[in-house]
Specification:
The protein has 586 residues and is of the alpha/beta class. Helix content is 48%, strand content 13%. It is built from 20 helices and 17 strands. A five-stranded parallel sheet has the order 9-6-5-13-14. A four-stranded antiparallel sheet has the order 1-2-4-3. Strands 10-11-12 form a three-stranded antiparallel sheet. The longest helix is centred in the last third of the chain and has 25 residues, at 554-578. The protein binds one RNA strand of 76 nucleotides through helix 2, helix 6, strand 11, strand 12 and helix 16.
RNA sequence: GCCCCGGUAGCUCAGCGGAUAGAGCAACUGCCUUCUAAGCAGUGGGCCGCAGGUUCGAUUCCUGCCCGGGGCGCCA
């Protein structure tokens, strides 16, 4: 619709420029939906952009454009020059009404396109491939709300890319080597010994202060809990289960052995189960340790050295990041001989490109954002393409309950988990709330609103209910012996009420919204759009006196049932992109 | 000190260089009891953090400052 008008305006501008003796290019004008309804369906700013160049007044130019555009082959019913030089256009209503058939023909796939992949399309090679890496939480504890936001965000971005022409791989990278996992194993072992009565629990004072030196003994028993150890109850649970299964048979095992393995496996299963609960499945779980065993890490280090990008100092190996224009150099291998997280990350990103992805997206929380340039630069020097590595960052989550911010602490394991919230509000509401806000801002998760079952208040239910109501109407129609119309099986010109035209105009926007959300990696646009659609549909149904869907007038009934079906498809498609279910009844 | 992200209605937030800046909740007024569940119609509420700059036009782009969050490790 918009593109059709744009084409006509371009023709008119071409003629206008030719008449003025200007052979230059067309201006980069906009065709947009004005904020105010009175300004028509679309407005065009071309006249203002050309005023200086042609030495004419903007309003005069706009008038000339208006004349040349005419009715644009029946597309335009009315146009006028307004404000400083806008050309406002009202389209013929038949243009809108007929679009409803397009929506119905496309069904749930209305909204899908190849829009976002356009810039990277590979000639004759099929869809371009994108990898989206997200969550990537190390298996040291349950998923927190921060991970939850990233999980939903990443999954929605993946869904959007898939709907706009990409072949998507979801990947989870996890770190199963290194100090963190050793401390995890030692934490479990400490709880294990404690449960067997062979060691003492650390004092509360010691746990509260990570810098405090551990006491060696409490009441004659040794304290073995590691400094900065994991304090959550889930650690105790794992230890208790080990005692039940193995008795005291593991007292001589090192913390870094069986204890770490069992803890890791248990926690990871738990994380996966949580992700499945909220509808997220990964195609690849990439294991950091594999980079050591298959030699890719060593290879990357050797290649960096060959390229003169690492050097030895203070017993450590440094990445010469300053040579790549970055602030300072970074250690990649500690003086202990153990690589820092940076080294495997570099090898990992190089590996991503070797697997043939056209685009690699890392989704990360704001606390990791500064690390990305180092990984990207190093990987780029090893053959990865810099402009095909993209960082998508997001801010944190705070939880509000009873008007108060809920305090959380990762270290003390007093954080709220994804599971706890999903227990309370369900996966659909969880996802909707997590995706409703733009990534760049903090997300305030209002637990009270999320728990509220009132469909009018809770935006997730408000949208779902709008969808369910289309099924309610269908059930009612079938009861009355009225069949649902086929995509072309009704006369859309019967939809003449302003609220009906407005609905159609809104429904038709879906593909544009989806494309923009995908390209900008901002799924919240879809959530807002769905609220707008529901915000038109729900009141429409409420005002039953003015426009009952099911009426004596068979042709009108068919048209309104067609409208209901279009609403259903648009909402179903949008909710699918957010990973939120679209129930037939609630 | 340096870097990143925010600052828009009482609250939570949308806003693609355009015209008189929007939504939901909360508040206020009137009506209604539903094609499923307290709905519908309306009202009030704003130096778009501050100050410059670019532009025909700035909430939007640029610079500086203020406030809030995060980051600046041989932690990940």
């Amino acid at each position: 619709m918009k593109e059709a008008l744009r084409g006509k305006v371009e023709e008119a501008l071409q003629a206008l420029l030719a008449a003025a003796g200007d052979g230059g290019p067309l201006p980069d004008f906009a065709i947009e939906v004005p904020r105010q309804k009175e300004h028509g369906d679309f407005s065009c700013n071309a006249a203002m952009l050309l005023a200086k160049r042609l030495g004419k007044k903007p309003r005069e130019l706009a008038e000339e454009l208006r004349t040349r555009l005419g009715d644009a082959g029946g597309l335009v019913s009315r146009s006028e020059v307004a404000g400083p030089g806008f050309l406002n256009v009202v389209l013929a209503s038949a243009g809108w009404q007929d679009r409803i058939h397009d929506v119905l023909k496309a069904g749930d796939r209305f909204g899908h396109s190849s829009a976002a992949a356009g810039g990277v399309a590979r000639a004759g090679q099929g869809k371009p491939r994108v990898q989206v890496e997200f969550v990537s939480a190390n298996p040291t504890g349950p998923l927190s709300t921060g991970h939850g936001r990233q999980a939903v965000l990443g999954d929605c971005i993946a869904r959007l890319l898939d709907a706009t022409g990409w072949d998507v791989t979801r990947e989870y990278y996890f770190n199963d080597g290194g100090r963190q996992m050793r401390v995890l194993g030692e934490s479990v072992k400490a709880r294990y010994l404690e449960h067997l009565g062979r060691a003492a629990a650390p004092t509360a004072a010691a746990l509260a202060d990570p810098e405090h030196a551990w006491q060696d003994q409490v009441d004659g028993l040794p304290v073995v809990f590691p400094k900065d150890g994991y304090q959550g109850d889930y650690i105790v649970d794992i230890a208790v289960r080990l005692v039940e299964k193995e008795g005291a048979g593991l007292v001589d095992e090192p913390g870094d052995g069986r204890f770490r393995e069992v803890a890791q496996a248990t926690i990871f299963q738990n994380i996966e189960a949580t992700l499945h609960r909220i509808g997220i499945r990964f195609d690849v779980y990439f294991n950091e340790r594999s980079l050591y065993t298959d030699g890719k890490l060593e290879e990357a280090l050797v290649d960096l050295r060959k390229a003169g990008l690492v050097y030895d100092a203070d017993g450590a190996v440094w990445f010469r990041a300053t040579a790549c224009g970055l602030e300072r150099d970074r250690v990649v291998v500690k003086s202990s001989g153990e690589p820092t997280y940076l080294m495997p990350d570099i090898a990992y990103h190089r590996d991503k490109f070797r697997r043939g992805f056209d685009l690699v997206i890392d989704i990360q929380g704001a606390d990791h954002i500064e690390q990305f340039p180092f990984v990207r630069e190093a990987a780029a020097r090893l053959g990865a393409e810099r402009d095909r590595m993209e960082l998508v960052m997001h801010q944190f989550v705070t939880i509000t309950s009873g008007g108060e911010r809920v305090k959380q602490s990762t270290r003390k394991a007093t954080f709220i988990t994804v599971d706890e919230i999903v227990d309370d509000v369900g996966a659909d509401v969880f996802r909707f709330f997590m995706i409703e806000r733009k990534r760049d801002g903090h997300l305030d998760f209002d637990l009270d609103l999320a728990k509220d079952k009132n469909w009018k208040k809770n935006p997730a239910y408000y949208v779902q209910y709008a969808h369910a109501r289309t099924w309610g109407i269908e059930r009612k129609a079938l009861e009355a012996g009225v069949a649902m119309p086929a995509a072309d099986g009704f006369d859309a010109s019967r939809l003449v009420l302003p609220e009906e035209i407005e609905l159609v105009k809104k429904l038709v926007l879906l593909p544009e919204i989806v494309a923009r959300a995908a390209e900008s990696r901002e799924p919240h646009h879809v959530a807002y759009y769905l609220r707008e659609v529901a915000g038109l549909w729900n009141p429409y149904l409420q005002d039953g006196d003015r426009h009952r869907v099911l009426s004596e007038d068979a042709a009108l009934t068919a048209a309104r049932l067609g409208l209901a079906l279009a609403v259903r498809h648009v909402i179903a498609c949008g909710l699918e992109l957010l990973g939120v279910s679209a129930p037939e009844r609630m």
